Amino acid sequence: MAAPSPASKPFVVVFGGEEFLIDRERQRARTWTGRQAIMVNGEDLTDVELVGILETASFDESMRVVILDEANKVKGDKHLKAFIKDKSETDITTILVALIRSEKLPEVWQTAGKKGRIIEHPKFKTWDRNNEVVKWISAEAKRVGIRLAKGVDDMMFSLLGHDLARLAGEIQKLQLLVGRGNEATLENLKLVLAPNPSAEAWQVAEATADKDFRRAMNLLSTLYKSEGDDANVPVAYSLMKQIEKLMVARYMLDAKMSEEDMASAIGMHPYRLKVFLLPMVRKHTMTDLIRHMSQLARLDAVVKSAASSKRSHVELAVHSIARAA
User: Fold this and answer.
1) Under CATH, which number does the domain 201-322 receive?
2) Which 8-state DSSP code applies to residue 181?
3) What architecture is domain 11-121?
4) Which of 39, 72, 204, 237 is most deeply packed, by most CB within 10 A?
């Protein structure tokens, strides 16, 4: 969907978990040359209303693009299905861009995508051996015409985390500083980057599992300042995933597996396993980890319920694990 060239298909279906990239696709569609852009939201539309918009010609007979945000909230009943079925693949007088802010693509939009294009932006993974956000940082820098010196992408991720909007903004600042075709160094990054205190749920989970109580609570406090109660579910999930990883590693450690075999099984670089994960694992017994997982299962139910004081429950879980004897 490269602007300014207009699309050549009647349907463009965009879905996935990376909202910044979905928003970027929306903005590109709005700037297609020679098309009147009409913005609608699936939360406010019935299928009949949507089809009516798509079938109504403009007064001046100009070509249009209808950008449907939150398309997954449209029911997809017989009216929309019939419109998609009857739409000719060569009829691009009106193009429908459907934005689905979910990893799951509803059946009605799968059908539409088969007559057009499907663009997926899955949630980036930040695994030790496959950090897709770091890879995206380098790709984004290349997109705006600069190169990043060694370590700049990793430093940006460590300071800004998984916030693609902020990362894109800082990359744009680097481009303005060094100019297209040039290399941005760590020193350049220091000149443009003024990071606000930031934290992510996985950082809270790692500090908790490492029994670094002060750091865990500081990170949790920072996270709540930026996200409020929306942080409850991600923190509970990250804690469960972290303890699950420790349980697997603890089992292999107790079974006296080699570090190479452990690293391969877990999907982690052997050096990182040795200097980062194993010291953390050795701070817990399997009995402790099973107890923690049981506590986190109860926490998971609480944060997804209508219970009050969810934040207090999360803080107590962090305190319990980080301060466990």
Assistant:
1) 1.20.272.10
2) T
3) 3-Layer(aba) Sandwich (3.40)
4) 204
pLDDT at residue 194, rounded to an integer: 61
How many whole angstroms separate alpha carbon 109 and alpha carbon 129?
A: 34
> Could you read off the pLDDT of 77-106 as tens digits, one per residue?
899 999 999 999 999 999 999 999 999 999
Digit-coded pLDDT (tens) for 34-48: 898 999 999 888 999
- CA-based max dimension of the chain: 76
% of the chain exceeding 70 in pLDDT: 95
Closest CA to 208 of 198, 219, 197: 219
Helix (H) or strand (E) holding 16: strand 11-16
Q: Give the pLDDT score at 151.
A: 92
DSSP symbols for 255-319: TT--HHHHHHHHT--HHHIIIIIHHHHTT--HHHHHHHHHHHHHHHHHHTTT-S-HHHHHHHHHH
Cα–Cα distances in angstroms (integers) from residue 313 to residues 264, 292, 316, in the given order = 35, 14, 5
Cβ proximity of 186 and 151 under 8 Å: yes
Residue spans of the domains in the chain: they are 11-121, 126-192, 201-322
- The pTM score is 0.62
Tokens of 67: 């950008």
Please state which CATH class domain 126-192 belongs to: mainly alpha
Can you give the three-state secondary structure of 209-236, one letter per residue? HCCCHHHHHHHHHHHHHHHHHHHHHHHH
Q: How far apart are CA 118 and CA 98, in angstroms?
A: 10
